[in-house]
Design brief:
The protein is an alpha+beta fold. It contains ten helices and 14 strands. The strands form four sheets. The chain has a seven-stranded mixed beta sheet with strand order 2-3-4-13-5-8-9, sandwiched between helices. A three-stranded antiparallel beta sheet has the order 11-10-12, with no helix packed on it. It has a two-stranded antiparallel sheet with strand order 1-14.
């Protein structure tokens, strides 16, 4: 089944209002969640709605947060999200970073007392519309990664996203976890009854783990071996520890806990192109580089060389035309949620 982004956004809004969030804030969250699905981030859009509602009902999220600036200087700010919905907190933080970068050239905004906010690319992409580069870091909402060589879960998927404006070409948008697969992909595989590829997870004996229903018996593997572990650690220090947010053993597993605030940490950086030179010239040079890479010689059997964000852009265009696909298990889950909330389903 496919639904339009407008239908999906309206459904999410109804559900969040029924759960107790104000109409305006529900619509703001729903717009970002539907945008995630439009871009193909299927593990971070409407798929997360039942989990969000469970945590709202469990009292783990503040429905009327006072999202505020706790500290600031010309090129930085620290945001206290007051345990509000992560999408609201991160929209506030990103807008603050953009506003400051207009005068400071570069602005780094840290966040504490937030919640899961969807895919990293949502926020790294926002500065692009203002002729800025966006850089986003976060501490994941559950620990699925041990230190290299260990088995104690002390780190999360701690993602990074970077959005770079282009001219005639689509912007370059890198969005990646520091693990081979984000945990959202494990959850969607479990819901669909699909096996995971070897290389995503191993069990505590070091053997490949391919059944997503047994994910709690093992852990995710970092990208690039020990280098991915290092990145996960450093990104967590920047997005979590620096801001006074949860990191390491303090991270709350929101997959199994519907009552405890997570104190999720994020960081968003906005970099003004104009502060470094001519905006049009920068975009022209990005276009040239993109075309050079795309036209470069390929290995045998390779049909195309792609840029970060290119597939998400293609999915966005396709889903705008044809609608957002909802697999049967997800549709069933959403309609069960609707029935429980007393609202119209999809």
């Amino acid at each position: 089944m496919r639904v339009s982004s407008q239908q999906l956004e309206a459904f999410i809004t109804r559900a969040l209002v029924a759960a107790g969030i104000s109409g305006a804030e529900s619509k703001s969250i729903a717009e970002l969640m539907a945008r995630a699905d439009l871009n193909g981030a299927d593990g971070h859009g409407v798929f997360r709605l039942p989990q969000y509602v469970r945590r709202i009902k469990g009292g783990a999220v503040n429905l009327k947060p006072d999202i505020r600036v706790e500290r600031e200087a010309p090129g930085m700010a620290l945001i206290d999200g007051d345990n509000g919905m992560g999408h609201l907190v991160m929209r506030f933080a990103t807008e603050k970073a953009i506003e400051k970068a207009k005068s400071a050239g570069v602005a780094w905004v840290g966040v504490k007392w937030s919640n899961h906010a969807g895919p990293a690319s949502l926020y790294a992409s926002m500065p692009i519309a203002h002729d800025m580069i966006g850089l986003y870091l976060a501490v994941g909402n559950a620990n699925h990664l041990p230190a290299w060589g260990g088995i104690d879960m002390l780190l999360s998927t701690n993602p990074i996203a970077v959005g770079v404006p282009a001219g005639a070409e689509p912007p370059i948008v890198l969005d990646m976890a520091t693990t081979v697969a984000a945990y959202g992909k494990v959850k969607t595989a479990a819901q669909r009854g699909e096996a995971m590829p070897e290389g995503w997870m191993i069990d505590r004996e070091g053997r490949p783990l391919t059944d997503p229903r047994r994910a709690d018996e093992g852990f995710l593997l970092p990208i690039g071996g020990y280098k991915g572990y290092g990145l996960a650690l450093v990104f967590g220090l920047l997005a979590g520890t620096l801001n006074g947010a949860a990191m390491g053993r303090d991270v709350v597993d929101f997959n199994h806990d519907d009552t405890t605030p997570t104190n999720t940490g994020h960081a968003i950086v906005a970099i003004s192109l104009a502060a470094f030179g001519d905006v049009a010239d920068f975009k022209r040079r990005v276009d040239e580089l993109v075309r050079d890479i795309r036209a470069s010689k390929r290995l045998p059997g390779v049909d195309a060389i792609r840029l970060p964000g290119e597939q998400s852009h293609a999915k966005h265009e396709e889903r705008m035309r044809l609608g957002i696909p909802l697999p049967d298990p997800l549709l069933k889950s959403l309609n069960q949620l609707a029935a429980g909330l007393g609202i119209a389903g999809l």
